[in-house]
Write a structure and sequence with these properties.
This protein has 339 residues and is mainly alpha-helical. 75% of the residues lie in helices and 1% in strands. It has 16 helices and two strands. InterPro entries: ABC_transp_permease, LivM-like.
Length: 339
């Protein structure tokens, strides 16, 4: 059962403070390799929760997140590069961009905004499609964006990509945007706007007959998901310090969809938990794959888990429900106090 909406804010504040304490401990005691793994887990949480807005809340089947990550990543990277380096690397940049050097946060917001603008432009024709037709169309968007990145050599350096970027992403930035993503998506889901989206997912014709602007709501969810994916792309790029047209492939799109489907289409809690579990499982299996020369074993295990879950629980682990994890964790303390 999900917590009542009027108790969400204090519970969220408690969880955020506990998370901040854990982040501080990790930042002070863990080595850079482990910190980078935790940051990738956080990025997967942002991607899974943001895709849930599109695929879970309103029932679209979009595979376009890597395209929006590419857009957001390139925009953020170009904006933070110093002007003297841009002149050498990117000779075809417009003059107003070539002279700019933005700080990290505005660059991330700009990257997300441009990704949202691309989603808005693409959304009008693409979101007229349904089901697997929409999936194929959004999958094609990945290849279109990659083709632009390859051919605009004077703006993106083409297939060479942008390397040697400043390592601006850290655990605190990832944690901050995880909190923002979860908070915004939770509040959206439990608002009248979110209930409208869920109604469209359950019965689009009935919602339309009741006066719901279905096309407008579909575009809104698509744009919001793209904005958050663009920010995740900017964080990702400044964590690995490079970006190329192939940085975010269609394989990543399926991995994010798996997180949403396993957790439950519409469940924010489920998306977070599955993103953490799958990210950790992938990291644990990687040394085994390399030692046994069984590359791709983790993907086979994940595929098997997906099949089992879909057979036993077609709506995912939680469906659209939000289990009260904070209450569950605090239950032992309540029992001891009552005793």
């Amino acid at each position: 059962m999900s917590a009542p909406r009027n108790t969400f804010l204090p519970r969220f504040a408690i969880a955020a403070l506990v998370g901040a304490a854990l982040v501080a401990l990790a930042d002070a005691n863990l080595n850079p390799y482990l910190l980078s793994i935790i940051q990738f887990i956080g990025l997967n949480i942002i991607l899974a929760v943001s895709l849930n807005v599109t695929n879970g809340f309103i029932g679209l089947f979009s595979l376009g997140h890597p395209a929006f990550m590419t857009v957001g990543g390139y925009v953020a990277a170009i904006l933070v590069i110093p002007p003297e380096r841009k002149a050498a690397l990117l000779p075809d940049l417009p003059a107003f961009l070539a002279a700019q050097e933005w700080s990290f946060l505005p660059a991330l917001i700009a990257g997300g905004s441009v990704a949202a603008l691309v989603a808005l432009i693409v959304g009008f024709p693409v979101l007229r499609l349904r089901g697997h037709y929409l999936a194929v169309a959004t999958l094609g968007l990945i290849f279109i964006v990659q083709s632009f990145a390859v051919n605009l050599r004077g703006v993106t350096r083409g297939a060479l990509g942008l390397s040697g970027l400043p390592e601006l992403t850290n655990l605190w930035w990832v944690y901050l945007f995880c909190l923002v993503t979860i908070y915004v998506c939770w509040q959206l889901k439990h608002s009248s706007l979110g209930r409208t989206m869920l109604a469209i997912r359950e019965n689009e014709l009935a919602a339309s007959c009741l006066g719901v602007k279905v096309a407008r709501m579909r575009i809104l969810s698509f744009v919001l998901g793209a904005f958050l994916a663009g920010i995740a792309g900017g964080l990702w790029v400044h964590l690995v310090t490079l970006i190329s047209p192939s940085s975010f492939s269609f394989i990543l799109a399926f991995e994010i969809v798996v997180m949403v489907v396993l957790g439950g289409t519409g469940s924010i809690t489920g998306a977070v938990l599955v993103a953490v579990v799958l990210s950790v499982l992938t990291q644990l299996l990687r040394p085994v794959e390399e030692a046994a020369n069984l590359f791709g074993a983790s993907q086979m295990i994940v595929a098997f888990v997906v099949l089992v879950v879909l057979i036993t629980r077609p709506k995912g682990l939680f469906g659209t429900a939000e289990p009260d994890l904070v209450g569950w964790l605090l239950r032992p303390f309540r029992k001891s106090k009552a005793a």
